[in-house]
Amino acid sequence: MKKLFFLALAILFISGCFCAKFSIFSRKENSRPDQGLAFKYPLSNTDSADAKEPAKKVLILMYHYVRKVQKEDNPLGYKLSVDPNAFSEQLEWLRENGYHSVSTKDIIEKKITRKSIILSFDDGYEDFYIEALPRLKKYGFSATCAIIVNQIDTPHYLSKNQIRELVLSGIEIVSHSMNHPDLTALDSRELEDELKTSKDVLESEFGIKVETFVYPYGKFDENIEEKLKNLDYSLGITTKSGTASLTKNPFKLPRRRVDNRDSFDGFIKKIQTSDW
Ligand SMILES: [Zn+2]
Questions:
Q1: How confident is the model at residue 50 (pLDDT cuts 50, 70, 90)?
Q2: Residue 175 pLDDT more than 80?
């Protein structure tokens, strides 16, 4: 009888643990930042006349971190970051001035229209999920995240679950290699791993197609370009400054860098003086 009593107690204890675990999981799932907003948010200005007129050029903006950082504490980090409030102001201005976001897939499919921009974020930092995503949703923009595959689930980088949620929110995920090396310094086996394995892992893990590669440090050569083509990539994105054109080499697409050194007026000038 005593044995039976302990057995019943043990069953109750185990099922209690399971329920607690389950409810923690549910809570975590509900605390995502998109709560209260449409899950697939409407993209801004896609009904405008500009958005219906085909174009040959698209401006790709290059961001890294969206976070608060003091110049004195972290000079390099400051140069790689945009303050979250400044980011909101930039998005608000882009929206008010008729720009709309597209993806690198739209370049591949030649679906570029006037005032198309791509907001690209390099390295896959966690602050994209925390700071950038809610603001993008608020102002109706999408974005392209270039992921370093071996950094997924490490401190300060996006987790697998966060990336899954980004995919569901319409954020484009592209490859930024496995380990972020200087690709021009690798032997052919190492290069294959950086280009092919990163694509394979992102595709199988997140159920997406990856056809765009963002070169770490913007470094590449003809051999790397050739390898990308053979591995079924369609685009290569550099750190060279300029406006991307549909009529030029798709493996050498330039971007415009945006960081804390851009004042609000400087940002506007950067957009307006780009070669559209
Ligand atoms: Zn990078």
A1: confident
A2: yes
> What is the rounded distance in angstroms from the CA atom of residue 107 to the CA atom of residue 237?
12
Q: Domain for residue 200, yes or no? A: yes
Question: Hey, is 121 helix, strand or coil?
Answer: strand
Residue 84 lies in a domain: yes
Tell me if 37 is assigned to some domain. no
- Over residues 59-100, the pLDDT tens digits come to 999 999 999 999 999 999 999 999 999 999 999 999 999 999
Kindly give the distance from the C-alpha atom of residue 2 to the centroid of ligand 1, in angstroms, as a whole number: 64
Tokens of 33: 């930042």
Residue 30: what pLDDT? 36
Residue type, 103: S
Q: How far, in Å, is the centroid of ligand 1 from the Cα of 214?
A: 8
CB atoms within 10 A of CB 225: 18
CA of 33 to the centre of ligand 1 (A): 25
| Domains of the chain: total | 1
Cα(100) to centroid of ligand 1, in Å?
25
Which domain does 208 fall in, by range? Answer: 45-272
Average pLDDT, the chain: 87
User: Tokens 């229209």 belong to which residue?
Assistant: 113
Whether 68 is in a domain gets the answer: yes
> Separation of 217 CA from ligand 1 center, angstroms?
6
Checking DSSP bridges between strand 57-63 and strand 244-245, what pairing results, if any?
Answer: antiparallel
Q: Residue type at 174?
A: V
What pTM did the predictor assign? 0.84
Between 60 and 15, the more confident residue is 60
Can you tell me the distance from the alpha carbon of 31 to that of 21, in angstroms, rounded to the nearest whole number?
16
